[in-house]
Amino acid sequence: MATTLSFLSLPIKPLRTKSKLPNLNQLTKPQIIKARSVDNKKKKPTELFTNLIQQTTHHLKSSPLPLTVFTLPFLLHPQDANAAGGEFGIFEGRTLALIHPIAMGGLFLYTLWAGYLGWQWRRVRTTQNEINELKKQVKPVAVTPQGKEIPSPPSPIEVKIQQLTEERKVLLKGSFKDKHFNAGSILLGFGVLESVGGGLNTWLRTGKLFPGPHLFAGAGITVLWAVAAALVPAMQKGNETARSLHIALNTINVLLFIWQIPTGIEIVFKVFEFTKWP
């Protein structure tokens, strides 16, 4: 690394030109400047450029420049640019490494809560559909020839309708539609952020990622979050297929989340084994 630039030691073929300068030792300084100016005007631009290179190289040959000054950025091996060498300080420590498992544990519980809110909002809609179907089964009220209704105890169907109506009123007070939408938005934002952050933290600590069940399941969960959220516009328009697919994707998401927990715990143990505070 302490050697000089190799191209400086290469032989340079002198440029042959037709112009001849007089003996500079016999001229005064103004005459020398004038003679060189006249000679330069006779030369082609390519010849002038070549002379400039020769003169510059001549001066560089006389001064031993360390090779590292010019070649260091190009001689660095790819592995020298990797992380996990202490370059990132606290970002490689145990504190930030534990943020991911703690955050994902919270997001798992929040996923269950968002699912509960979604199920309650679904009950609001399905209850109304059930009421409408029951109303079709109610028999007309008996009337007298004068057109007066004959009093009679409510039928079981009417009792069921009244019960479902009261239940739906209670559900509507819970504002489950808005709560589910807000929970899903928060889950999507923080979920994607923490999924990417977890992979980035692993790279900061180790300099690489580890393809395996935990990484692949995490990627799958992130994709399912995004696809389920993309179905919301169609769901808001009353598309039942989109609603059913939304529920199915989130069910798979929860199952993947549960399956990922054991491998996540193993990684936490490795964090305590190979990292230090902070």
Protein model, in words:
68% of the residues lie in helices and 0% in strands. With 278 residues, the protein is mostly helical. Helix 4 (94-135) packs antiparallel against helix 5 (156-173). The longest helix is centred in the middle third of the chain and has 42 residues, at 94-135. The two termini are 37 Å apart.
How would you sum up this structure in a few lines?
This protein is mainly α and 278 residues long. Helices cover 68% and strands 0% of the residues.
Q: Could you tell me the radius of gyration in angstroms? A: 40 Å
- H/E order of the elements? HHHHHHHHH
Number of helices: 9
Which blocks of ≥5 consecutive residues have pLDDT under 50?
Answer: 1-21, 40-46, 59-83
Beta content: under 5%
Helix content percent band: 55-70%
Keyphrases for this structure?
278 residues; 9 helices; mainly alpha
Structural topology:
Elements: H1 29-42, H2 45-61, H3 67-75, H4 94-135, H5 156-173, H6 176-206, H7 213-230, H8 232-236, H9 240-274
Helix pairs in contact: 4-5, 4-6, 4-9, 6-7, 7-9
